[in-house]
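Minimal example, chain plus flavin-adenine dinucleotide.
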Amino acid sequence: MDKILFLAHTEPDGSLAKPALEVLPAALALGGELTVALIGASTQPAADQLAACGAVRFLAIEGAAFADSRYATDAAAAETVAKASAAAIVIAPHTPRSARSLPGVAGRLNGTVDTHATAVSLVNGAPAVTRWFYRQRMEAVLTRTERPWFILVECGNYAAYTRAPGSAIVERLALPDVVTRTTVTGIHAPQADEQTIRPEAKLLFVAGAGWTKKQSDGAVHAGEAEQLILGMLHAAQASLGGSKSLVDSTGEGQAVLKCMTHLNQVGQTGATPRHPKGLATCCHGEEPHVVGWRFINQRRAVNLDPNCGWARGKADVVYIADAFEVVRHVNRLLAE
Ligand SMILES: Cc1cc2nc3c(=O)[nH]c(=O)nc-3n(C[C@H](O)[C@H](O)[C@H](O)COP(=O)(O)OP(=O)(O)OC[C@H]3O[C@@H](n4cnc5c(N)ncnc54)[C@H](O)[C@@H]3O)c2cc1C
């Protein structure tokens, strides 16, 4: 069996975050001789987290230069640990950091890379990767003969590794001098409260174009709509999705919801989020939109129109009601 390397970047406190713990089981599933490689400012807490995983070696490259994502240092570190492990298969979590650096490392080592893998398995004794193609319409299982084979596995596909921590003996590798032209001066990220896309949320709250249309009094109430939607997102810690009509109108200078961008769009030409529950409001439920809901387990919708697409078999429950009234009331209950 091929030698396996599990490669992950550590958090500022030196530990591994959930996405990495969700990808380690993919490496364990192959059953080959396993080496763990950790890269970051510090790595001992992560090695101790994985002490009982059955790895024969723990390699680390650590230091302040590896605290932040930067191509030059990340690629040099990954190249060093991949060579030291002599692994044929390198499995890493599909984080932005590994997605930026590992394909280049595969090239340097005359290997190959597959990204967005959802599973790793053995087919006739050979490692195989499962991934989706063509916007998640076709699933393929593929094997390759090139080595080393870098496989970036999406988080959320395996139950996170939970064995008890211990104390691991870590081999710290020296890194050859790396020429860097990039200095990381800090990270600009939105406040947690401004963040509307929350992949981990239990609820996907979808807003459709109806929120910015004339209501029963003949007027548009986009300001109140935005307040109600943000209130719901905040109170339920939900993730925000939008229909194409709504996100397009936001870009066309019509009555807009400022919190809505094309990143929120759900559907055929948008995202296919995975949340246990979804609630669509003021959204008609047309097929190109609903096709983006296929991984949402429980679907509910609020619409004034008893003939909307949701009512025709696309939702588990449809409330025929004014979404302004419903969300206003739900927000009041959540506040209590
Ligand atoms: C090739 C192609 C790709 C597409 N891809 C996508 C995609 O990825 N995602 C996507 O979303 N669409 C996509 N579409 C567009 C899709 O077909 C629909 O046009 C779009 O989803 C409609 O958006 P909507 O339901 O928000 O708006 P509308 O169709 O305008 O519906 C608004 C709804 O709000 C309801 N409403 C209004 N006021 C209230 C109220 N107070 N309370 C409750 N309900 C209210 C109305 O009854 C109505 O049902 C695509 C279309 C094509 C042709």
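The chain has two domains: 4-172, 203-335. The CA atoms of residues 228 and 327 lie 6 Å apart.
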